[in-house]
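<given_protein>
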Amino acid sequence: MRVMLITGGAGFIGSNFIRFFLRKNKDFIIVNMDNLNYASNLDNFKDLERSPRYHFVKGSIANHELVNYVIKRHRPDYIINFASESNSDNCINNPINYMQTHVLGTQTLLESARYFWGKHKFQGNRFIQVSTNEVYGSTPNSDVFFSEDTPISPDNPFSASKAAADILVKSYASAYGFPAIITRSCPTYGPYQHIGNFVPTCIINALSDKPISVCQNSPNVREWIYVLDHCVALIRVLFYGKTGEIYNISSGNEMSDFDMAKKILRLLGKPDSTIERIGDSSLPDTRCVLNSYKLKNNLNWNTKFKIEDGLRDTILWYKENADR
């Protein structure tokens, strides 16, 4: 049995990835290490608690002693680093926690894995750094698509800390031949997402017949990808990606927050009039859309879920899991 260490696995994407991966790959054991912040939920794994192929460790990836202990004890063949302080809005007021998790935490994982994997020259090992499209910044130009070669240009402390982590990972691949790959995805939606995020907020407010607030300057155009399409992309990168490379993950489902809110309301048979525009309308429109040609062409990946289908599945999950 091969072993995979997932960090931040009790969060939104990590929870979906673990459940999907274990269902599709019977010859793996997964160790889920999570600090259990506000966006994490161990209830996502209640049905896996007795599984011999799933183990949970509570703790921070910035804890050097704990990370060394986990890697030494479980001897993972692969590591996927989902660990993240996911609410970028909170970062403006408290950036230190984000730097500790994204930069120091990533450094701790890299150094520990380098030490233990280096004993056999990284044979059979892979380290996947799950990053974000936000490291590219944004553009008002509707013709610009960010590729992996686009210079990073973070415009807030959250994206700066993620960019710093990416640079660390890239440097380990270059300096040590460390078997690392970076993925940068557009915004993801789906089951298990914390209600503080845009899509679940829209769904819950719509189900409760409450207004949906959208910022005036939210063309804020971006792509949206269903979480299982994101998970499949990560698996393709894990098994077939090239060490030292960056892979963008995008869907082509490009729309503003306002249009996303309208689509959710229409799927629920609710009127668009429940959308409230708030904030400063004088701010410039922003756009962050990725070019994922490398992933699609080199690793034979593409999305399978139309946005309406993904949203229907997501809405159904929130209807059936109101206690979450």
